[in-house]
Design a protein that fits this description.
Elements (H helix, E strand, L loop, with lengths): L2 E4 L2 E4 L9 E6 L23 H13 L8 E2 L9 E3 L14 E4 L5 E6 L3 E7 L4 E7 L1 H5 L2 H13 L7 E4 L9 E2 L1 H11 L7 E4 L2 E4 L1 H11 L4 E4 L14 H4 L6 E7 L2
Parallel strand pairs: 4-7, 5-6, 10-14
Antiparallel strand pairs: 1-2, 2-3, 3-15, 6-9, 7-15, 8-9, 8-10, 11-13, 12-13
């Protein structure tokens, strides 16, 4: 089953990414130390929660995949398509603005934080390389998943058809109404295919981020894609949701690492 439990910690793993050389998890909000409105396992450091609680939550999150928090490489997520190659753990180094991480170093755990945007896991079992993408509507329009695949091709010799990809929990198409500006960006990004990802309900237009990101990945030649199809706004017992909970909420973590 995709959901696993270790003590109070509940987390999600893709069957597609069940490889002996890989460890990964999307850690739910359960099992942490933060009070409301960040209840409970918030690992977002810029949402008003106390830093001591965030550090403890991050330490707990890392235990589900048996990694040390000191192995983490993370970035300042800004809804871009910028790629960073993580060659060593960040360890207090510069927090770079980016939304795509790649690595082939087993000492590194890639980490990103989410509360409605799409977590995308990339794994190349042939060249033993990994990627992690943060893709909201703007990142999708800017081609963040495409940037991730192409960066792995260039850096590691990855063949897109060898990639195993997981698209994680995010705001679902029934809960994501968008305005005319976003509709225009989607039409610019997808052309005549944009309507495949836009649905009209009661006069409003809704965006399907899952299908949009899947189309981009398939356009790059990726064949193995598993979509969780879990809406963050529908399942607040597990996930933080900016739209489902309002302006103040926490962030859940997505992590991926090569086994040493």
């Amino acid at each position: 089953m995709p959901f696993q439990q270790i003590g109070p910690l509940r987390f999600y793993q893709f069957e597609t990414l069940s490889h002996p050389g890989l460890n990964h998890a999307i850690v739910t909000r359960q099992g942490g130390v933060s009070p409301n409105p960040w209840f409970s396992l918030n690992i977002g450091g810029n949402v008003g929660d106390e830093s001591t609680r965030v550090r403890e939550n991050l330490k707990r999150a890392c235990t589900v995949i048996g990694r040390d928090p000191d192995s983490i490489y993370d970035v300042w997520q800004v809804h871009s398509s910028r790629v960073v190659r993580a060659e060593i753990p960040r360890m207090g180094g510069e927090l770079i603005k980016a939304d795509v991480l790649i690595s082939n170093d087993p000492s590194v755990t890639l980490l990103m934080r989410f509360a409605d945007c799409v977590p995308i896991f990339l794994y190349d079992p042939v060249h033993r390389a990994i990627g992690l993408v943060h893709s909201g509507w703007l990142g999708t329009a800017r081609g963040a998943p495409v940037a991730g695949v192409r960066a792995m091709v260039e850096a590691f010799g990855t063949r897109p058809e060898d990639l195993c990809v997981g698209i994680g929990p995010a705001i679902g198409p029934d809960h994501y109404p968008i305005g005319s500006e976003v509709v225009g960006c989607m039409r610019d990004a997808f052309g005549s295919n944009a309507d495949n990802h836009l649905q009209i309900h009661d006069g409003e237009i809704y965006l399907n981020l899952w299908s949009a990101n899947r189309e981009m990945l398939e356009g790059e030649g990726v064949r193995s894609i598993e979509v969780a199809e879990l809406c963050t706004a529908c399942h607040l017992e597990d996930w933080y949701s900016h739209r489902g909970e309002g302006q103040i909420t926490g962030r859940f973590g997505a992590m991926i690492a090569l086994n040493i």
